[in-house]
Task: structure prediction
Amino acid sequence: MIDVSALSVSYDQIPILQGTSFSIKSGERVSIVGPGGSGKTTILKAICGLIPFEKGTAKVFDQNMETSSLSQRHLLMKRIGVAFQQGGLFDFMTVRENLEFAMLHMTEKTEAERSAMVEELLGAVKLIRTKEMFPYELSGGMQRRVGLARAMCTDPEIALFDEPTAGLDPVTSTIILNMIGQLGGAENRKTLVIATSNVEIAFRFARRLILINEGKVHADGDWVELLKNGDEWTKYFLSIRFKGLSKVYLAGLNLPPEFIETYGI
Result:
């Protein structure tokens, strides 16, 4: 579904990605995690064909996003939903208009179908009452939830979420994660990818974790195995957030028993 191979990207001659490679299968749920500035957002932009590459490829549905024509890329993007860090909503449009705009330009849905989808998705993210409100009238968490609805309103095969819980409180973060899971859950078998700096969010979202450091894939695999058998930097980065926390809390995250005994109190 997604194949990134030896990808290198720079901004103003500053290397961001340096030979990044990984692949994601159809229906997979994956967390891309790493320190701030390690290249996570750039990876998502590359997958969407929004930035030029120096080397390597980013293929989606077996199509090279960089070398595809504008019309080909447009067709590919109809099959991809994206939720940006800050919501990415049009300030001059109401919540309803934001969702309908995406469907109008990315799907063949009728007016009645678009209206029904707005009701369904805003109901799913518990924001039906905001339908005629503007983004500036919403809190940050509410804007994120509308962004989720817009990312999913085109019924995409792939959905990408860039720091979906950044700056949100723990309760709202949990709501956001649950909603992503529900909107693209097991019945729909969508390919779901989040990019986050929050290790706990990464763990809770997916078992497969792609760890990015200094523009490269430092580790890729089941996060439980990485915690137990990864190299020293991997184990340090993935564990530092949890040291000294309650064993009961750590158990609730399904962390390995040996990890809980080592770090929990």
Remarks:
- The radius of gyration is 19 Å.
